Amino acid sequence: MDIDAWVWWLVGAVGLGIPLVLTAMPEFGMFAAGAVAAAITAALGGGIVAQVLVFVIVSVALLAVVRPIANRHRDQRPQHRSGIDALKGRSAVVLERVDGSGGRIKLAGEVWSARSLDSGLSYEPGQQVDVVEIDGATAVVM
Alpha helix (H) ranges present in 3-141? Predict the structure, then answer.
C-alpha cells in the first residue's frame, strides 16, 4: 500500500497542530501551515525538493511576518483604563475639609472618603484636587 506524499504532509500538519493546542505556542501553527502548503505542492505534482522548499519558505515567512505582529499586539497595554486605574489622575472637588486624617470629595459623580498625600496640607470645600492613588476605599489627593 503506497500512500501519496500529500497525505504524509497532512499527517505532519496534524502532528504539528497537537502541540499547538496543548502548549498554545503559535509557532507550531505556523509550521503546520507550512506542512499544509507542502501537501498542496505534493498534490499538484511537485517533487520532494519542491515540497520541502515550500514547507521551509512558508514556515519561515510566517515566523518572520506573523510573530513580530503578534508580539507587538501582546505587549500593548489596553487603551481603556477601568476601575481604580481610571480614577487615578482625575480631578475632584472637596466637599468636606481634606487633610492627612481624612475628609470627603466628589470624584466621578460619587462621594469618596479622601486624605491628603502630604499630611501637613489641607484642602477646603470647593477646592479642586487631583487624585494620586486609591488606597482601599480612600482617595489620596493633592
Answer: 5-23, 26-43, 48-75, 84-87
